[in-house]
């Protein structure tokens, strides 16, 4: 017999009754029933109930065990009595009647319990992450993550992609966040950077002629933590394709992402291909966001015209000054008590708005403070535009276009939640397309890139030379699921002349572009294919599939919100001798002194 196990802890079934078996695992729980002692033994695969009879040597050993000690038990597989069968366990029809127990490793008193669903502070969980990972939900998330990555890899290879690994030690790249820098010992005063993304390398792979590349790529960004963003490092499905249009990219990756979600959806609905394509400007108008949650059925309407020159002076004045008025329909809200509207008004003020105006509709027409100052035909036009009936309501966001769009999107989300309109058990995907190539910097008044400076402008060189820069759209796109951006992507600018012109519009001299991006520009001068790609975030996909609100719950060993590894003690100070070896001297900020 194997020294540790003949079966894992989820393997034994009723058909095994009468056989001898040996199991190894952790003591998940203990229950003393007088003449019998029960231990639930746990390993990676599951649980098996083990029974120790009073008066046996094994019973005496088991009595002294702390939970989470590691043991090996041997004995006979027996059928459970009818009233003790546990239908929730795959092994629930049998138990192991233990004749021999070997202690492999004793556990100290635990700082947190593994069994049960007790909640613990994040810092405690991360300090003892190896214990936290033994807990059922967290362990299940990691198994899911492994399955997701294996599925993605298989699907990409089946789609004709080749997997390559790009450098981890590289040069600093302008990806929009701070780099993590690594001092180069052999080159004093110089630094490598950990890659924020393999962007330039994957484009160079296309220049090298590999046609379809992918990688489960680690990325490093020195940025703040969010619920859907891990500080420090994250992983993405990085891919790039040659000789493709935007639609080619969509049609290739949709079966991969959609198929993945269908595989792990566990009965939840998934948007069928083709995913909706929503232009950026339409997304802001209809949903108030370029990351729309399509599980929410509410569609924002532009009602600026209905208020222009109206008797409701506040909105009429905003319309006259070039602002907009957006209407967010609220089906069924007309019959809600006044407290419902007061609570939303208070919430709006907390968001920085002056309040949240509304109109309700009943069989007689429009009601409420705004309706009293609004001509009936205008109220009727708003009702028709929003598709409202008696018993419904409508809320308004007004101001400059961008401000009103953002606030209307927040109101749409809040109403969808408060009114119970969000579709449950579904993954709703869409592509956001046609991002503007440029925007005006509010502080300097200059033209800046609005998204990715390496994207191909729609219309190419002709657009750059003949159009108002603020009217130029780019072949840039995001894939969004349930209001979470999974990836940005683009058809790349593969022409040096177009790239230099695009940067010139944003105020970059040719010499500066050559200095910062000369490696890629030089490669393009030797023949570059049209190419494009994207990089969906693996952590975010697993977070959605696991139905977890925080991305740390699907990462094996995450950092805390301050970017610290509490388990390993990183970041940590290094010795003066090590700094000298690296030709470094610290210039630490002065800590403020107390008065």
Could you explain the architecture of this structure?
The chain has 595 residues and is of the alpha+beta class. Helix content is 30%, strand content 23%. It is built from 18 helices and 24 strands. The strands form six sheets. Strands 6-9-10-24-23-22-19-12 form an eight-stranded mixed sheet, with helices on both faces. Strands 1-2-3-5-4 form a five-stranded mixed beta barrel. Strands 13-14-17-15-16 form a five-stranded antiparallel sheet.
Give a quick set of tags describing it.
globular, 595 residues, 5-stranded mixed β-barrel, alpha+beta
Summarize the structure.
This protein has 595 residues and is α+β, with helices and mostly antiparallel strands.
How widely separated are the two ends?
Answer: 72 Å
Uncertain residue ranges: none
**In terms of structural class, how would the helical and strand content be classed?**
alpha+beta
Global Rg: 30 Å
Q: Shape from CA axes?
A: globular
Helix content: 25-40%
Quaternary: single chain
Which range does the strand content fall in?
15-25%
Q: Mean pLDDT, nearest integer?
A: 95
Number of strands: 24
Supply the number of helical segments: 18
Q: How are strands sequenced across the largest beta sheet?
A: 6-9-10-24-23-22-19-12
- Could you give a short account of the major beta sheet? 8 strands, mixed
